[in-house]
Amino acid sequence: MNLAADSSPIIEAVPNFSEGRRGDVIDELAAAVRTSGARLLHRTSDAHHNRTVLTVAGAPEPVLQGLFSAVEAAIARIDLRRHQGVHPRLGAADVVPLTPLRDIQLADCARLARQLGRRIGDELDVPVYLYGAAATSVERRNLADVRRGEYEALRREIHNPRRQPDFGPAKVGPAGAVIVGARPILIAFNVFLRTADVAVARAIASRIRERDGGLPGVRALGLLVGGQAQVSMNLVDYRATSPVAVVDAIRQRAAAHSVALDRSELIGLIPRDALPGIEDAAVTSEGRIRSLASLAAAAEELLLPDLTPDRVLEHALATPSEHL
User: Fold this and answer.
1) Same domain, 50 and 153
2) What is the CATH number of the domain that holds 146?
């Protein structure tokens, strides 16, 4: 199925699951998404984060059904009481964001997110929190605020008025809670440093993230991943701060610690206009990348050795489905 050739409204969803090690469970989550006919564009799993990110796209109805099926599978297969990983998490199906891609508005995705959240809470009997454009209060717009303290804190605090879920019961079981929301396109982007000193990554993250007066639209954490310091980021407004600008900022701040950059890592897909030097002439009318030289130059500038055409959102949308 070529979504670029479709004429109906298209949304994207990027559900994050708290499982990155058990291949059979990850395969089950991916298969659950496809049961409705939604397109699975990409899947990324990481054992250190112990997390899997799926990129799903299609018309709203099959995408919502596929997400519900995957959340149901995650709740049945993932026990947060035994989960360990470096990435923050509140639940087995940790966060389920909806994003408008074509002929649909963010407000529509917020309405769909509330619809999905209510169904998850009612039918799967787990607490559900809404965030982003779907949030019911200003305090819950920011994902980090909803997830503060993670699963362990939620078990202690869910009966407090400020931690009451938007849907579902005010009780926390082995699967934790699900956070459902709506947001614009986000780029999940990590930069590895040539050091094992996580304090350097944390210092850099505190300087570049918007919350602490850094770059607009940048959310960042310093983590130790596989014995290597990593600046883990969400670029929530890549037009305000591009991946190139982020890499340059991290390089400058790392140099102050006498540390060099090693490589970058892309989680999921990246929009074409976030890549440097990919001109209109380098793509087909449908959005497929046809100039590998220009893509290689972008990969070199971003320190992304594994950047291939299928990691570019428009290219993935225009390419017929393959088994992932």
Assistant:
1) yes
2) 3.30.990.10
- Reported as a single tens digit per residue, the pLDDT across 40-83 is 999 999 999 999 999 999 999 999 999 999 999 999 999 999 99
Q: Is residue 323 part of a domain?
A: no
- Short-list 115, 149, 119, 147, CA closest to 131: 147
**CA–CA distance, 263 with 190 (Å, rounded to integer):** 9
Residues 6+ apart with CB under 8 A from 237: 184, 216, 217
CA distance readout (Å), 41 to 30, 189, 226:
10, 18, 27
When pLDDT is cut at 50, 70 and 90, the band that residue 2 belongs to is: low
pLDDT, tens digit, 9 for 90 and up, residues 242-300: 999 999 999 999 999 999 999 999 999 999 999 998 876 567 777 777 778 889 999 99
Annotated catalytic residue, options 42, 83, 87, 315:
87
Q: Is the pLDDT of residue 14 over 70?
A: yes
Residue 220 sits in a domain whose CATH number is 3.30.70.670
| Domain with 103 in it | 3-182
How far is C-alpha 291 from the geometric centre of its chain's CA atoms?
27
Same domain for 72 and 219, yes or no, is no
Q: For the residues of 49-112, what is the DSSP string, one character each?
A: TTEEEEEEEE-HHHHHHHHHHHHHHHHHH--TTS---SS--SBSEEEEEEEEEES--HHHHHHH
Name the DSSP class of 287. S
* Mean pLDDT, residues 25-38: 95
Of 135, 159, 182, the one marking the end of a domain is 182
Residue the block writes with tokens 């809670």 = 177
Instruction: Judge whether 159 counts as a catalytic residue.
Output: no
55 domain-assigned: yes
pTM, full prediction? 0.91
Backbone angles phi, psi at 283, to 5 degrees: -130, 160
Please give the average per-residue pLDDT across 5-26, as a whole number: 92
Residues 250 and 221 in one domain: yes
| Residues 154 and 23 occupy one common structural domain | yes
Residues 170 and 195 in one domain: no
